[in-house]
Amino acid sequence: MHTASHPCHLVSGPPAAGKTTYAIRLAKDLGAVLLDSDQVAERLVRAGLTLAGLDPNDRDSPAYKNAFRSAVYETLYDLARGHLERLPVVIAGPFTSEGAQAHWPEALEERLGVRPTFHFVTCSPDERRRRMGARGEARDLPKLADWESYRMLCREERPVWPHVWVPNSMDEAMG
Q1: So where are the chain's domains?
Q2: Does the domain spanning 8-174 belong to CATH 3.40.50.300?
Q3: What is the pLDDT of residue 2?
Q4: Could you count the other beta carbons within 10 Å of the beta carbon of residue 159?
């Protein structure tokens, strides 16, 4: 197995929990390359969905997940592996279904050449809903339009593998 020369951190959590804000701060503190799933793939995903005649704001349908989810994550891993020879790397993305897979950290270590330090960013669902509304992203509109249905599909539980717990809301910070 190829081993990387620098550390890798993976920041996960449900949408609008504050992953990007946390990952930016972590990358700055570490002098690391930041690979955020939205920044890396957003334009390509929107173009591909549009070309396929699908809603360019969709990030939750089976069509999106079948066509793009794996490709976006594999792109992040390829980019991370390429940078880890020279610099520390922070990868940010939801990785929600991976949180239920006990052996995912080992598979990712094999893929990257280093075992990442995992961080799970979370906040209350009500706060996530407020944040989605405030950030004004078109990709959040379908979630906000039918919040309760979206919440039923969104995995919010802590990952089953060891991780740094990052509570990121006022009610959790006080409690």
Answers
A1: 8-174
A2: yes
A3: 60
A4: 22
